[in-house]
């Protein structure tokens, strides 16, 4: 059985004052059946990890460099995130692919670095609106999976997040049938590459305008093992009902 995962990506939002949201989340969900994760901006990770210690809430990074050390001004290595208290890291988010021109090969190298540092890599894939309207969605997702998911991926060290770019921060959500089609496709692609047992252990998250009002119906979709939530993860009052919906799924 795959343990469900409710993951929040704060993106470039939140200063020290926002850490109280973590305490609020833990207070509402002290013993969730799903796994809970918040990925705050890098400068908050150490404080966030100290604050949640001993609770059911885990802390993750939003990106890591592929190298362990070196002359990479402004970058952070996977081992640094782990030392700061992170247990997970998002790699290949569409905003990084777009803002920083990250290729599938670079995302794959980042995922390998994350796994080598004992972090769970949350590898993001997703099509643009033009690609969806052009009927290329599965082809795009297939290529991203082939290029971004490393050979050593297992259910223990890798999570895949499907985030259609046009659904991020827009309030637009694919139909449940569209989500099911892509998630079933991702499972099939992983199965073809890694075999049914290994592929069957990898959790698949949906991301893109997940809110308290649509979480339950999304969590009922085939091969949806949780969510990667942006805007609605910033406030415990929004994220808590999403966690509750996943616990009930
Ligand atoms: O990009 C996302 C999470 O990584 C989704 O963001 P929103 O939930 O704000 O649409």
From TrEMBL:
<comment type="pathway">
    <text>Carbohydrate degradation; glycolysis; D-glyceraldehyde 3-phosphate from glycerone phosphate: step 1/1.</text>
</comment>
<feature type="binding site">
    <location>
        <position position="209"/>
    </location>
    <ligand>
        <name>substrate</name>
    </ligand>
</feature>
<dbReference type="InterPro" id="IPR022896">
    <property type="entry name" value="TrioseP_Isoase_bac/euk"/>
</dbReference>
<comment type="similarity">
    <text>Belongs to the triosephosphate isomerase family.</text>
</comment>
<comment type="function">
    <text>Involved in the gluconeogenesis. Catalyzes stereospecifically the conversion of dihydroxyacetone phosphate (DHAP) to D-glyceraldehyde-3-phosphate (G3P).</text>
</comment>
<comment type="subunit">
    <text>Homodimer.</text>
</comment>
<feature type="binding site">
    <location>
        <position position="169"/>
    </location>
    <ligand>
        <name>substrate</name>
    </ligand>
</feature>
<keyword id="KW-0312">Gluconeogenesis</keyword>
<feature type="binding site">
    <location>
        <begin position="230"/>
        <end position="231"/>
    </location>
    <ligand>
        <name>substrate</name>
    </ligand>
</feature>
<dbReference type="GO" id="GO:0019563">
    <property type="term" value="P:glycerol catabolic process"/>
</dbReference>
<keyword id="KW-0963">Cytoplasm</keyword>
<feature type="active site" description="Electrophile">
    <location>
        <position position="93"/>
    </location>
</feature>
<keyword id="KW-0324">Glycolysis</keyword>
<dbReference type="InterPro" id="IPR013785">
    <property type="entry name" value="Aldolase_TIM"/>
</dbReference>
<keyword id="KW-0413">Isomerase</keyword>
<dbReference type="Pfam" id="PF00121">
    <property type="entry name" value="TIM"/>
</dbReference>
<dbReference type="InterPro" id="IPR020861">
    <property type="entry name" value="Triosephosphate_isomerase_AS"/>
</dbReference>
<feature type="binding site">
    <location>
        <begin position="9"/>
        <end position="11"/>
    </location>
    <ligand>
        <name>substrate</name>
    </ligand>
</feature>
<dbReference type="InterPro" id="IPR000652">
    <property type="entry name" value="Triosephosphate_isomerase"/>
</dbReference>
<comment type="pathway">
    <text>Carbohydrate metabolism; erythritol degradation.</text>
</comment>
<dbReference type="InterPro" id="IPR035990">
    <property type="entry name" value="TIM_sf"/>
</dbReference>
<protein>
    <recommendedName>
        <fullName>Triosephosphate isomerase</fullName>
        <ecNumber>5.3.1.1</ecNumber>
    </recommendedName>
</protein>
<dbReference type="GO" id="GO:0006094">
    <property type="term" value="P:gluconeogenesis"/>
</dbReference>
<dbReference type="GO" id="GO:0005829">
    <property type="term" value="C:cytosol"/>
</dbReference>
<dbReference type="GO" id="GO:0006096">
    <property type="term" value="P:glycolytic process"/>
</dbReference>
<dbReference type="GO" id="GO:0004807">
    <property type="term" value="F:triose-phosphate isomerase activity"/>
</dbReference>
<dbReference type="GO" id="GO:0046166">
    <property type="term" value="P:glyceraldehyde-3-phosphate biosynthetic process"/>
</dbReference>
<feature type="active site" description="Proton acceptor">
    <location>
        <position position="163"/>
    </location>
</feature>
């Amino acid at each position: 059985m795959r343990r469900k995962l409710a993951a929040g990506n704060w993106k470039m939002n939140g200063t020290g004052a926002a850490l109280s949201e973590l305490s609020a989340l833990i207070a509402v969900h002290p013993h969730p059946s799903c796994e809970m994760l918040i990925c705050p901006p890098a400068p908050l990770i150490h404080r966030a990890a100290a604050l949640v210690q001993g609770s059911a809430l885990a802390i993750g990074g939003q990106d890591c460099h592929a190298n362990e050390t070196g002359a990479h001004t402004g970058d952070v290595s996977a081992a640094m995130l782990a030392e700061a208290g992170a247990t997970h890291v998002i790699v290949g988010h569409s905003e990084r692919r777009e803002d920083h021109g990250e290729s599938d090969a670079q995302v794959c190298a980042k995922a390998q670095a994350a796994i080598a540092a004992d972090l769970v890599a949350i590898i993001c894939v997703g099509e643009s609106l033009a690609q969806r309207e052009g009927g290329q969605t599965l082809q795009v997702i297939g290529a991203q999976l082939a290029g971004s998911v490393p050979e050593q991926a297992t259910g223990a060290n890798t999570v895949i997040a499907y985030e259609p770019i046009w659904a991020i921060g827009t309030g637009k959500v694919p139909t449940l049938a569209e989500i099911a089609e892509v998630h079933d496709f991702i499972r099939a692609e992983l199965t073809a590459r890694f075999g049914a047992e290994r592929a069957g252990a990898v959790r698949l998250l949906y991301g893109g305008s997940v809110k308290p009002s649509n979480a339950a119906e999304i969590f009922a979709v085939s091969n949806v093992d949780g969510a990667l939530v942006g805007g609605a993860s910033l406030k415990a009052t929004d994220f808590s009902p999403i966690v509750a919906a996943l616990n009930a799924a």
